[in-house]
Amino acid sequence: MIRVLVAEDQSAVRAGLVLILGSAPDIEVAGEAADGEQAVALARELRPDLVLMDVQMPRLDGVSATRAVVGEGLADVLVLTTFDLDEYVFGALRAGAAGFLLKNTDAKDLIAAVRTVASGAGIVAPAVTRRLIAEFAAKPVREPAADPSVLRDLTRREREVLSCLGEGLSNAAVAERLDMAEATVKTHVSRLLGKLGLRSRVQAAVLAQELGV
Asked: At which residues is 4-aspartylphosphate found (predicted)?
């Protein structure tokens, strides 16, 4: 069973999320939090596999809560957002979130995303990744740019894969562009994430954009 903690301050939305997740035979809602502080406290107490985290909550925002949950190794975090909160999403990804979903995601995709992140893959839908990247590309960078030296340990092929991630391409699309097997792409993604100290391909996509890979 995948044990999920749902952190969402709007009770009606939270109830809907709980209902959807509870309908999946392999997912158990371990707890519910109405604010960021409660989310962190319950994550410490319940040790769920995953926290479904809203970014805009009272007392402690979702970015800070994500940083605490991930920093303490309590659970993976899947962020819930709307695109008018992109800056919060960016912060959440830097804090170690494994991915993010839009609040209007349908039930099937929500369940699939929870399963994906819980499996350790941290894959976010390419279309959503591309939109996030496009939004940030149009805005001034408020945080210091990443150090290009972080790329020195990557092989040429890993750099090429990283560049494709920066465009929001799926593994299948990367395989087609670089003329390699999809399983090989997965191996390269896993290795480059490890070398760069990243938790998800979304973080890799943001890094690729920052460095102009």
From this structure: 54
